[in-house]
Description:
Residues 347-370 are annotated as: Disordered. This is SPFH domain-containing protein. InterPro entries: SPFH_YdjI. By secondary structure, the protein is of the alpha+beta class. It folds into three domains: 2-140, no CATH class; 144-291, Tetrahydropterin Synthase, Chain A; 298-345 and 368-400, no CATH class. The protein has twelve helices and 16 strands. It has helices spanning 12-19, 117-124, 181-187, 209-230, 246-261, 263-267, 283-297, 300-320, 325-329, 333-338, 371-383, 389-400; strands at 2-7, 26-28, 37-41, 43-44, 61-63, 67-70, 74-80, 83-88, 92-97, 106-107, 133-140, 144-150, 155-159, 164-178, 201-202, 269-281. Strand 13 and strand 14 form a beta hairpin. Helix 2 (117-124) packs across helix 3 (181-187). The longest helix has 22 residues, at 209-230.
Amino acid sequence: MGFIQIAVGAAWDSLKSTFGDQFLDFLVPPAGVGDTAVVFPAVTQGTNAGRGQNTRGSENIITNGSVIIVPEGYGLLTFQDGAVTAVVAEPGAFRWDSEDQNSKSVFSGGGLLSSTFTTSWERFKFGGRPGSQQLAFYVNLKQIPNNRFGTQSPIYWDDRYLNAQAGAITRGTYVLKVVDPILFVKNLVPASYISAGARPFDITEHTNPVSEQLFSEVVGSLAGAFSRYVNDADKEHRITRIQGDSVGFAKSLADEVEANYEWESGRGLQIESATLVAIEYDEDTTALLSDVRRADALSGGRSDTFLKQSVARGVQAAGESGGGGTGLAMMGMGMGAIGNLVPPTPTPGAAPAAATAGAPAPAPAQAPADPAVQLAQYKKMLDDGLINEDDFEALKKKVLGL
């Protein structure tokens, strides 16, 4: 009992032309269904250009001997008394027969469905003998885009990289996909959408109670998703990278939603991708991120560059102040790191510092340094990148008394 596949891969118009004249009923998706409609009834083409012999069939009812077309990217479920009697998740033309022993109840779709599918079929399948009439509904198995989320007040997460709690207001979109149509229809779709004469179930409609529920669950999972993203020890993510990583953020969000609400294992839904359109950090987080940027700038190669620039400015300042010991001594370990500089030249006429009791005698005054030696040392600093051309010219003029 179930379906017998009679054509695979044929064009839509060709299938309608071929089978519309041969079978009692010929069922297809309704015209004008939107891309975000997830569940909608099959409609009979009995009066379409004279095709089909049953012109008085009930809406979305499939009878023995009828053919139903399943387009690419869609699945089909049939029901009797609210129970699932057959599932098709691969494209083609199928004839319904409740008596033929060669018919099948499940066309799995060649791996397109979730690993939960087999379990959910066994759980919800019809246990008795199917009647000749079934309710037939299509399920959209394509990606369903533009599902929006956003927060009005900041969400907070523990950020291991910042070593503090961070907060932000955020908004974005995510892409959904039905990976188990049985779980989705049985556990999430209201019964009114899988009954005779039902209207299409559009998951993005604001009036749809399921849409509001999913929105709330995603927003409630954002803080946990942010925390998963930035605290992933393997990836070492930073929150500032999250806007450009739709795949990584989608995985964090999907894992958090699954942990909280069992979207995939309990409802047959999966988040395929997610994009943050905007993140507005609170004042404290903004200050923390600013400090992190400064710390990043002072790490690695940039630290060496800043040290060299700092040393160069110190050398120039020492020269402009008269080359005394105080100016150069202020540079401390930085000067030791770049090599020995020219010994300070004593100020003419300056009296030696008074000796204190028990203190060693002051070192004898050193002779003034040779200008040629000073210039050679400054030139080496220029060649090593410790000072720039302007610094070198200023030091040269100072040494030469220009």
